[in-house]
Amino acid sequence: MTIDRRLERDLPQILGELAMGPYPDYIDDVLATTAQRRQRAAWTFPERWLPMFEVARQPVLAPRLPWRSISLAVLLIALLVAAAVFVGSQPRTPAPFGVARNGLIAYDAGGDIYAADPVTGVATAIVPGPETDVGPRYSPDGTHIVFERKLDSARVRLYVAGSNGADVTLITPDPIELTHPLLGEPWEPYQFSPDGRSVLIAISDRGTPTIAIAQSDGSGVRRLDVGMFAYEPSFRPPDGAEVLFVGNPGSAGRAHGLYAADVSSGAVRTIIEPSTVYDLAGATWSPDGSRIAYWRWGGAATGINARVHVISADGREDLLLPAPLEAAWQATSAWSNDGSRLFVLRGYSPTFEDVRPAVIPADGRSSGVELRVPVMLNGDCCANLEWAPDDSRILGTPTDAVGKPMQQLIIDPETGVTQPAPWTSSSDPTWQRLAL
Question: Average pLDDT of 187-212?
Fold first, then answer.
């Protein structure tokens, strides 16, 4: 008989023996003890005497609530509510660029820094004192200002303070001289980075125009070596990774070119090569950092013949913005916050005798609309202009016949209605941005 057949015959018996298992020794003792006790009497069961509906009506004990879990949940909800209240109580700040809500206007008067409500005209001295403080500029988020404190006719120190004038911080411990613009055109010698953590400064180093970056908390200043004379520096939006500047590499017979320097490495790239025929100035970034407006002049024509151009950030597309045939020149451009328009000054003579402001599309589809402003804006070069954060107004500082800044004006870019600012100042315009 094979092994398989024997296993098939004996398997049921083996399984039965395994199922029975061993017989415990204590079973006999248990049975002997229980056999001596009487069973429970039937009358002791309530169901014997009470109707079933009474039994069913007996109260059912509620399950125990998990109080510890409930307490933790309530605590978590309370913390979330408190966090939401805290966040909601913090002041909201706008994005560094683009349309925002109008805030205050900062200006200098009598050596003090003021902040004024552009609607009511109510002004408050936010940085008073015996020192001579001038040139306030708001940070892109509207929370701080940077200004210069004059030490003598040439040297200054720069300070940063809160938008209310609190926490004044020295950011350039060593006295500095600021670089003057190429032709007197409007241009800020210092400005905040998009994140507000640093300030870009145009410094004159023994007559050489250079670029410096100071930390807004006063922790240090460093030079950005671009290897050439550098004018009109500005941070590229939206992250400030590059600095745009008008540069002169020192080539004989060549004018200025347009360049951008990497803030981290200092590497310089050329946007517009210097020309032996034309010169340029007034370079400003569009709010999104994709384009640059500048003005160029030169060639065979005599007198003022500048024209506004818009070039892509990589220098590949250079657009000459149109102007009426009768116009002799067009310059001094200021970007709207939405990046769609430029406010320019347009001359109808090769001098500054007949200057008209205009709002033109930045894409060059038309020569725009001229505004009949009943005052002189550009006496002898060059009015300084800035759009309100919501693009509804333009704050301008005009110049007189010898180029001296005059009382600030507020201009409606749609109608040209112009009114003097309800405060007295001729400082460069700066308008605080607030969150929408």
Answer: 93
For residue 287, what are the contacts with CB-CB under 8 A and spacing of at least 6? Answer: 97, 98, 237, 335, 337, 338, 339
Among the listed ranges 45-49, 131-135, 153-157, 195-199, which one has the minimum average pLDDT value?
A: 45-49
How far apart CA 136 and CA 105 sit, in angstroms, is 10
pLDDT 10s digits, 63-102: 565 777 777 777 777 676 665 555 555 567 788 889 999 9
Please name which of 432, 426, 433 lies closest in space to residue 126, comparing C-alpha atoms.
432
Query: Of 339 and 36, which is predicted with more confidence?
Result: 339
Structure tokens at 2: 């094979």
Q: Among positive and negative, which fits the CA dihedral 415, 417, 423, 429?
A: positive
Residue matched to tokens 């940070």: 139
Buried b / exposed e across 225-255, counting CB within 10 Å, b at 16+? Answer: ebebbbbbbbbbbbebebbbbbbbbeeeeeb
- Report the DSSP pairing between strands 208-215 and 221-224: antiparallel
Give the Å distances, CA to CA, from 56 to 47, 50, 342, 350, 430: 11, 10, 86, 108, 83
* pLDDT at residue 261 tops 60: yes
Tell me the per-residue pLDDT of 303-326, one tens digit each, with 9 for 90 and over. 889 999 999 999 999 999 999 999
DSSP state, 38?
P
Q: What is the mean pLDDT of residues 292-298?
A: 94
Q: So what's the pLDDT on residue 401? A: 84
| Lowest-pLDDT range of 213-222, 257-266, 299-308, 380-389 | 299-308
Contact at 8 Å (CB) between 198 and 212? no
Sign of torsion over alpha carbons 127, 131, 132, 135: negative
Nearest to 190 by CA among 228, 225, 232, 224: 232
Cis check for the bond before 63: say yes or no (omega within 30 of 0).
Answer: no
Rounded CA gap, 171 and 194, in Å?
A: 17
CA angle (210, 249, 225) in 5-degree steps? 35
**For the chain, which residues make up each domain, given as ranges?**
101-434
φ/ψ (deg, to 5) at 298: 130, -155
CATH 2.120.10.30 for the 101-434 domain, yes or no: yes
DSSP 243-307: EEEEEE---TT---EEEEEETTT--EEEEE---SSEEEEEEEE-TTSSEEEEEEEESS--S---E
